[in-house]
């Protein structure tokens, strides 16, 4: 080494086994990167690999590797321990080897890559060394790009404005140049002395980023944020901060800012960390040293890169990384290599010590043989791994995760490997925690959006079946691969499988059949998700039974459809299945079951989101149940107010069309009835109670039942209506006035029909004759429910063969379109076109005319009663 001063050394010995070559490469790479000698890492690794291969593979001995650091470069020495080595004669020269041979290329590569190299022999030892000098860098040059033609340079709209702002130690603006005034609109006089933070829009996410006040205290900082301009808009900028001190020792921060789309002016090019040749301190970013540059920008990519580098560093067969939950009581598997990652991903293991627990999470630990301590690392159970080293990831003393590497052989690792792995874990712990917090923040924001959308959808329906379908469709595939909803009708009822959904529609029937054969989960009101193993066990038994039957019957190689369905269903339910109670109004009304495919697990964040969803879904489902029950009661009561059916009247066609206004209403303020009074006599009525809804329907029921009772007691039309008027007035404050057309019908032997009618304030009945003429068939009289003393009379009407009597409520005549109204004249015009039509056809034509008169749905109840005396058949 001459007079060169050795500033650091690192040594290691590698056993004569094949994996030692990779371990030696990792040792040299980590050592040189830790020293900041990235410029010579690749050459050193290549040369070390060849020399160690010659020692451990071809010579079959252990290899000693020594790394020596100087100010100008690095020297690496590799020695073997061959017991009977022949010392070459001085005159024989050196055999550099041939590039085409599998061995003997080490010296050839040394001659090609090393600045200096040499070889020393003894009877029991061969010692090869090489020197790699750091490349010379002129002072002041750190990075430069190639010379480009002018046409290839970036295009700018105008000259680039570089705002220069100086911030004093108190955070106030002390200098503001002309470009800053131009870009942001504030003059120097307006901003000088004000806090810089008053103008900064900092993209701060709690727990993940440095704040602007912290950034101004750093010696150097580079990145993006926003400045609020004079017009109130936020202008995105790319900034470079440099903290300096004046001759009096007072610190301040100089900020160079450009518009974000011009960041190339300030942004440092992405490159591997290098050190200045003129500097005595050659340190590199420890995170980039371990992970490599550029680092993955997502958490999963970062974790996967970490386990791969950890495995290579210790020449392991497998590596894994677990992240701690917020309360540090459990670890969640997030990345593995060399292990069945799909089976283990998001699996959880407890932290504290005990059987089946992860006892080594908080401190570095080495297990030389896991067969001697089964269950010490639950993640490695049944994986064939025997030796393992695990180290914690900690941030500010708090456990954030655990990193481990494992090997299939016993006794592979010692405390030395644990220290190396811990050093690597310390390098990446903060970056991993920052990435994890960023992911959690994104998940929480996505969860809030998801729950808001779910709440809107669930609140938009009161239909029970639609609510069940929405619950399942919101969870699959967003939260789970499949979903089943169980409902409980009442306290004494067993859970019922109400809805099943799978992201693969072809598996829904098989999944439903499987779940129908097993007992439902217990309706436990305890909040939170609990694991339900029954589906996976049932699927496993079904698959095993199907496979056994197929083998017993010498089934052909191509499986039957039933067998394929059974096996696919078993795989679909083979992962983790959880049950969340649906609790509403302090009662369990069902269970929401979520499942994953074979050996897959749920993330804790997903389970928490599912729990929030289950609470909202339970309330929506219970609201739908209550609404359905009340609708059923309402409809049952309303149907009791309608006539049971129309009687068959000899020689008279009768048709009724009834439409109640309002969604869900079957009965309103309008009503009708046709009923037998005595032999040969029939009563009919059509009326309209003031108002709509339940109050009007109550008077409807009173009127219809009173009419039947009084008519069958033998009272004539005027007497029936007078007594009904008294009954309505007796209701007091609940009474409502009523318009009513009541009549009695007597079919005659000559084929005609005699009618006696009383029209109490109701739209007049219209009579259609065979010649198409239309006329009123009664005179108007006082309505009911207003006056105590009524003087009513009845009028006789004879319907000849072919005549039609049309009776309607005011919902027909008062049908409106803007300022137009159908009215009595419009109704008469429509009726005049109904000559020769049956009673049913007449009623249908009137209804169509009313509906077509206006585009808006009807806002009033409607009743149409048509009676027609048919013409005698032609002989």
Automatic annotation (TrEMBL):
It holds the Pfam family HATPase_c_2. One of its GO terms (biological process) is regulation of DNA-templated transcription. Residues 164-200 form the PAS domain. Keywords: Hydrolase. The keyword Electron transport does not apply. GO terms for molecular function: phosphatase activity. This is SpoIIE family protein phosphatase. It comes from Streptomyces parvus.
